[in-house]
Specification:
Length: 247
């Protein structure tokens, strides 16, 4: 009978281990031909992928409600090759604004396209380290994140991006170099090589500002459980996942 407490503890640990939150899984398709980053969807890879992702979720408490589709909607496709991760996003936003043109000042309050990477899908806090990256991409193409000392830094050299807007619909097209948690901003770091079957922590978001001092909405690609939705800037535990596949 003296072994019962140990068996009970083992059972509890097993239950909690098996109850790990299952992350929403996205798929990125292999690009045999590198897409041109020019803000349109005419590339071979985008035409090859038949379906778009289109769901969005509110990611911040007390900031806006679900908007009309004319105010915000999106759909997007994901691709990869050995050297880059590619995103094509078609975003409907009736008012596009940048109230804070100084790149590292209140950039999250403006219209801002975000792409999030946790290269080894290990989760964890990333507020003052490179456990994960959140690329905040402004409509002026400045790319901001927080470095391993808690400072706001420009990471424009991590990606190539182009946005083209017509009648309230913007096509964002971007090619990302993917870095791991050993990235050092003060020295030359080498991006990781991507391969079939690799699974990364990943998510995408959009800050919507219709001309006010603060953003009106904040939307993300995956559902975040619980009452506090504004967590991605703190922890990669709430990211989704992306799997790199080949046909």
């Amino acid at each position: 009978m003296k072994f019962l407490p140990l068996l009970f503890l083992a059972s509890i640990l097993l239950v909690f281990g098996c109850s790990k939150i299952k992350k929403e899984r996205f798929k990125a398709h292999y690009a045999k031909i590198i897409p041109s980053i020019d803000g349109n969807a005419n590339d071979t890879i985008w035409n090859m992928i038949p379906d778009w992702y289109s769901k969005h979720h509110i990611w911040e408490n007390n900031v806006g409600s679900e908007p009309d589709s004319s105010d915000f909607s999106w759909r997007y496709k994901l691709a990869w090759d050995e050297n880059k991760f590619y995103v094509l996003a078609e975003i409907t936003d009736n008012i596009i604004s940048d109230m804070h043109p100084t790149p590292k000042y209140n950039y999250w309050e403006d219209d801002c396209f975000e792409v999030l990477f946790d290269e080894d899908n290990s989760g964890g806090n990333h507020q003052s380290n490179y456990q994960a990256f959140i690329y905040h991409i402004s409509i002026l193409y400045d790319v901001v994140d927080i470095d391993n000392e808690g400072n706001r830094v420009l990471l424009n050299d991590h990606l190539k991006v182009k946005m083209d807007t017509l009648n309230g619909t913007s096509i964002w097209e971007a090619a990302f170099s993917v870095y791991n948690k050993d990235y050092i901003s003060t020295s030359k770091s080498t991006p990781v090589k991507l391969y079939q079957g690799k699974i990364m922590g990943w998510a995408m978001a959009y800050c919507d500002n219709d001309g006010s001092k603060q953003r009106d909405h904040f939307f993300g690609s995956n559902h975040i459980k619980g009452e506090d939705k504004n967590l991605t800037w703190k922890t990669a535990d709430v990211f989704g996942e992306v799997e790199l596949i080949k046909h």
